[in-house]
Amino acid sequence: MRPVLFVIVAAVCFSTTGTAQAYGPDSASAAAVGLTRIVAGGGLLALVAWWAAGRSGVGTPPTRLPLWVVLLGGAAVLAYQPTFFAGVGLNGVAVGAVVTLGAAPAFTGLLEWLVIRRRPPRRWFIATGCAVIGVVLLGGLFDRADGGISLAGIAASLGAALSYAVYALAAKRLLDDGASATTAIGSIFGTAALMGAPFLLLVDLSWLGSAAGLAMVVWLAAATVAVAYVLFAIGLQSLRASTVSTLTLVEPMAASLLGVVLLDERLSTPGWIGLVVLLGGVVLLAVPGRRVERVPA
Asked: Is pLDDT at 58 greater than 60 in this prediction?
């Protein structure tokens, strides 16, 4: 049960991203926030990984990890940012976020099946179906998508979902090869930070000079990347990548509740129904009888 709880706490950390941005400077664009989050958070994770590896001396050192897996994972982390924001920009937050969040577990399960030859269990299909339906209702997709859908935006959102699946499976591969949770996730996000750093020159970062801007970046880097992804990786050590991907759908549920409590947002009746359905799917996956499903050694 502990790995499941770690992943759920990670998802709750992820969910604070939107709230932190809402309290941040109005001049900070979504693209700039996403890029600084990855560069600052990835750099912090890389430092944590090196410190933990030197302190424990246990597990595969970062310098001995398969380079192609680290590079692939880092590229996928970086690719997630522009594809997600492109999808949101072309189709709106509701459609873009719902397509990305709904497709990510499906892509993860499919890639796990095709690449690792590990078919997700029947319970995963049922739980994921419930969770995706809950996300669709929670996001108000049917209420807000009547103005025409951009196929390019859908493609971008699906690209973001695929990017998520790739870096989740890359992290799982490093963990299976003997890397610790901090080493696996720190190597991938540290690589993403190095890849993304040059692109900071292309966005307006003047808002970083304000106290609100600096506080936002510190929170995003520490809570929504460093802490969240270490917990994510710890859970990933014992659970299937497809299971972890579905469990992280707690993120939109927690984000919606934060919006209601802190930002005076309101949920429609379908939204509340979606929240309950989503929670039911997560509970079904998290508590399968008396034990949590684990990956065979």
From this structure: no
